[in-house]
Each structure stands twice: as C-alpha cells, then as structure tokens.
Amino acid sequence: MRELVNRLIELQELEIVHQESTILHKDNPPDELVQLKVRIDALREGVPSNSLARYDGHRRTGLGVVREVGGVCRGCYLNVTMGDLGRMRREEIPWICPNCGRFLQVTSDA
Ligand SMILES: [Zn+2]
Predict the structure, then answer these.
(1) Cβ–Cβ < 8 Å for 102, 85
(2) How is the chain split into domains, by residue range?
(3) From ligand 1's centre to the CA of 66, what distance in Å?
(4) Per residue in 47-99, pLDDT tens?
(5) CA pair distance 39, 54, nearest whole angstrom
(6) Ligand 1 center–CA 19 separation, angstroms
(7) Distance 109 CA to ligand 1 centre (A)
(8) Span 2-105 CATH architecture
(9) How far is the CA of 83 from the centre of ligand 1 (A)?
(10) How many A from CA of 26 to the centre of ligand 1?
C-alpha cells in the first residue's frame, strides 16, 4: 500500500505542477511540459484502474491523496481511529480515509 500511495503522491505533485504550467504556457508549451506529461502518464499506468478512479474522483474537487498527521486526515481534518490506523500500518485494510475516502499517506510511527 505504501508503494501505491507514494506513487499517487508523486503523481499528484506532478499533475499540480503540470496544471499550473499549462495555464502559464497555454499558447506555447515548452519541452519540459511535454516531458512532464510523459512522466505523469507513466505514473498513471502503474496504478490499478480502481485506485485511479478513486484518486481521479477526488482530484476533480481537490486532492486525491493526503497525509495523515497525528491521527488526523489532512483532507477532511477528521480523526482516524487508532484502531483503523493500526490496521492500516499492518496493511490489513487499505490506506483510505474512512471519513472522506481519499488515499491516506499513513505515518509509520504510532
Ligand atoms: Zn479524510
């Protein structure tokens, strides 16, 4: 799960840069922007389609993957229970916020 979430974090960062750069250079996209799109497409190819659908659904209105800090989801700012966090760290349940459904980058320490 960590590998998938880390990939989504990287994807999201590149997508945001790409979106902002596209607005800046809309008439004449530089080569860097084309390369960025290639990298984005490669990252997306490595994500299972059901996970990508969840991610994209949240990306339409904001972030698709967020960090967990001190037991709080940075997407909805609600607490994730210690029980759920423990199960996520043990990879028993997916790293998805039970409240908002965004992918959650879970910290490794309790
Ligand atoms: Zn949440």
Answers:
(1) no
(2) 2-105
(3) 8
(4) 999 999 999 999 999 999 999 999 999 999 999 999 999 999 999 999 999 99
(5) 20
(6) 24
(7) 19
(8) Orthogonal Bundle (1.10)
(9) 15
(10) 33
